[in-house]
Design brief:
elongated, alpha+beta, 14% helix, 431 residues, six-stranded mixed sheet, 6 helices
C-alpha cells in the first residue's frame, strides 16, 4: 500500500508541475482581469504618444520605436521594430491586425505626447527652455541665437513612454512557444480550436494530459490523457491534499444495463495556482468486488457534459459571481481550471473556502431509463466530502424540481436537480 501511495503521489506531483508549466500558454484569463473577449490589452496609463499630428511619423503607437516607415500606397505606417501596422488622421489612429482588420481605434486628441527634456546644464524642459530667439547663451546647450530647437533651450532627449501592447494572433503565440521549446514540445491547435501538442500516433493526449481551451479560456483535460489509464479509486481523493489539491467532492451511484456507474463531481483549489471543477464518468461490471475502483468510461460511453462555475461574493453573502464555463462536449471527464486561489498562499484551503464555489452542470445520459436511474442516485446523495486534512463531510439533501423553470427560479437552493424536457438531460447544482 505504501508503494501504491508513493506512485500516486509521484503521478499527482507530475500533474501539478504540468499545470504550473501550462500557465505559460497564452490567453490565460486570470480571475478579476478584464473581459476575455476584449481584443486589446492596452495599458490604462495612456502616457504613450499614440496619437496626434506628426508625432506618429517619429514614434510607433505600440512599442514607441522611432524605426518606422510609411505611409505606403495604402496609407499604412509600419514599425520596423515590432511589425505593427496602423493608419492615422487628425482625430484617430487605427491599429491594423494581421488580417487587415482594425484591431482597435485610439483617440488622437486624448493622448499625451512624450515628455522632452534637455541634457543636464542646458535650457531644461520643453516648457522653460525659451523661445526660438532666446534659448540661452552658448554655455547652456544651444547657440546664442536660437537655443537648438524652436521649443527647447538645447538639444533634446525623449523619455520613452510606457509601452502598450495589442493581443497577438494565436499563430504568433504558438510560434513563440515553438521558438522557446523547440522539438521538445510542438504546440498545435486541435479541431475544436484548443491549444494542445502534436501526438505522434494521432491520439488526443495533450501536454501531460492537459490542453488549453481558447473558447472557454481555461485549462481542460485531453480525451486520451494518461490519467484515463488509471480509472478512479478513493485513494486518489484521500492522498491528493498532500500535493496541495483541496476540494469538495460528491459521488452519485446507480446501476444501468449490467454496469455499476459512478458520476463524481469535484470543485476546489488545485496546486495553489488554479481554481476549478470536474465531472468524472466511471463504471464497472455489476457485482464487482474491486472495492472503490472504477474504470473510466470508454469512447462509446461518453456523454454530453457542460458546467458553469460560480464563486460566492463573501462568506456572509448568498450572491455568487460567475467565474467561467465549460462548453458542451462529449467527454468522459468534463473539467476546467483557471488561474486563481481560494486562499492565497495556502497549501491546503479549508472546507469553508471550497464551499465558496458553486457548480451548475448538465449531463445528457444515453437513454431516458439511464436518466431516471441517475436521478435515483441523486436522491440518495447525502454528503459532500472535503478531502483536506480534517476529512470533513457536510450533510446535504438534493432537492428535485419538476421543471427547468422551477429549478432556475430556486436561486437560494444550494443542492438541486431536474430533468429537462428531452427526458435525457439532467441539470445538477451543488455547493
Amino acid at each position: 500500500m505504501d508503494f501504491k501511495n508513493n506512485v500516486i503521489r509521484a503521478i499527482a506531483v507530475i500533474g501539478i508541475l504540468t499545470l504550473v508549466t501550462l500557465t505559460i500558454l497564452p490567453g490565460c484569463n486570470f480571475i478579476g482581469q478584464a473581459d476575455p473577449e476584449e481584443n486589446t490589452t492596452l495599458s490604462d496609463d495612456t502616457t504613450n504618444d499614440v496619437a496626434g499630428g506628426d508625432q506618429f511619423e517619429q514614434c510607433c503607437p505600440i512599442c514607441s520605436s522611432t524605426d518606422i516607415s510609411g505611409p505606403d500606397a495604402e496609407g499604412y505606417f509600419v514599425c520596423n521594430a515590432c511589425g505593427q501596422k496602423w493608419t492615422q488622421d487628425d482625430s484617430s489612429v487605427d491599429i491594423i491586425g494581421d488580417d487587415g482588420s482594425v484591431v482597435t481605434q485610439l483617440d488622437a486628441n486624448a493622448a499625451t505626447k512624450p515628455i522632452v527634456v534637455g541634457p543636464a546644464g542646458n535650457g531644461g524642459s520643453s516648457n522653460n527652455g525659451g523661445s526660438s530667439n532666446n534659448g540661452g547663451s552658448s554655455n547652456n546647450g544651444g547657440s546664442t541665437n536660437n537655443g537648438g530647437s524652436s521649443n527647447n533651450g538645447g538639444s533634446v532627449t525623449p523619455i520613452v513612454p510606457p509601452t502598450t501592447t495589442t493581443t497577438k494572433s494565436l499563430q504568433q503565440q504558438l510560434d513563440e512557444i515553438k521558438d522557446r521549446w523547440g522539438d521538445v514540445i510542438k504546440p498545435t491547435i486541435d479541431k475544436d480550436g484548443n491549444i494542445t501538442v502534436e501526438s505522434k500516433d494521432g491520439s488526443d493526449t495533450g501536454l501531460f494530459g492537459f490542453k488549453y481551451s481558447t473558447k472557454d479560456k481555461c485549462f481542460i483535460i485531453a480525451e486520451d490523457a494518461w490519467q484515463r489509464n488509471f480509472g478512479y479509486n478513493e485513494v486518489y481523493d484521500a492522498s491528493s491534499s498532500a500535493i496541495a489539491i483541496t476540494y469538495d467532492t460528491m459521488r452519485v451511484y446507480f446501476e444501468h444495463e449490467g454496469l455499476e456507474w459512478m458520476i463524481q463531481y469535484w470543485k476546489g483549489q488545485y496546486g495553489m495556482v488554479l481554481v476549478g471543477a470536474e465531472i468524472g464518468t466511471y463504471n464497472r461490471p455489476a457485482g464487482s468486488s474491486m472495492s472503490t475502483h472504477y474504470d473510466c468510461a470508454t469512447d462509446d460511453m461518453k456523454m454530453l457534459q457542460s458546467m458553469d462555475i460560480y464563486r460566492r461574493e463573501s462568506e456572509s453573502s448568498n450572491k455568487f459571481k460567475y467565474l467561467f464555463s465549460r462548453s458542451p462536449a462529449f467527454t468522459w471527464w468534463c473539467a476546467g481550471f483557471v488561474p486563481g486561489t481560494l486562499g492565497a498562499g495556502q497549501y491546503n484551503v479549508d472546507a469553508e473556502a471550497t464551499a465558496m464555489l458553486k457548480v451548475d452542470s448538465k449531463l445528457t445520459l444515453h437513454s431516458p431509463e439511464m436518466a431516471q436511474a441517475f436521478m435515483q442516485g441523486l436522491r440518495e446523495v447525502k454528503t459532500v466530502e472535503y478531502n483536506g486534512v480534517s476529512k470533513q463531510k457536510r450533510g446535504i439533501t438534493m432537492k428535485e424540481y419538476a421543471t427547468v423553470e422551477e429549478y432556475e427560479s430556486a436561486t437560494g437552493e444550494a443542492h438541486k436537480f431536474c430533468l429537462e424536457e428531452d427526458g435525457v438531460t439532467v441539470r445538477v447544482c451543488w455547493r
